[in-house]
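Reply to dn_fold:

You asked what the input looked like. This is it:
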Amino acid sequence: MMVCEKPVVRGPRKGKSATGTTTGYGRHLRAGEPACEDCRHGHRLRQRRWSEKNPGYMTAYRRKWRAEHLRWEQESTLRRQFDMSLADFDDLLASQGHTCAICGTSEPGGKGYWHLDHDHRCCPSNPSCGECVRGILCMRCNVSLGGFEDDPQRLRAAIAYLQTSNSQPLEPNDD
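and this is what came back:
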């Protein structure tokens, strides 16, 4: 038997049951049973309303949580999207000398994390199979490859365009 009872009117009302409220959700937890859909929904609504009323607190909370769980979050993303462990990622980055596989920069750019590049012909969308990983790139190189849709012909055409439109010959960038 569930600890909350189905109400005639949904929501918290004196003299009525607690189904569809955070109170009902708490009753389920204390009883050691899974919460019914109405109570889970009511609990989520209350949490969302509180978050909307306290945006500064939630921003600080999320930043703190991400800082404390960054490695876990990276591991989770790598496993889900590329079937790769964080140790494998670190090994690949070390094999590249802790630099971008294209431009050689030691700074990842963007939000401060490296991007794992894979062949989109093999896996056009995430998650990737993990077998088509090509290397680790900085944000600029990753965005650039994406803009050229991994097409070598487009990249050659862009190089030819830059070489003919500049008065000086192009030299590799030594950033």
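The CA atoms of residues 153 and 159 lie 10 Å apart.
Hope that clears it up.
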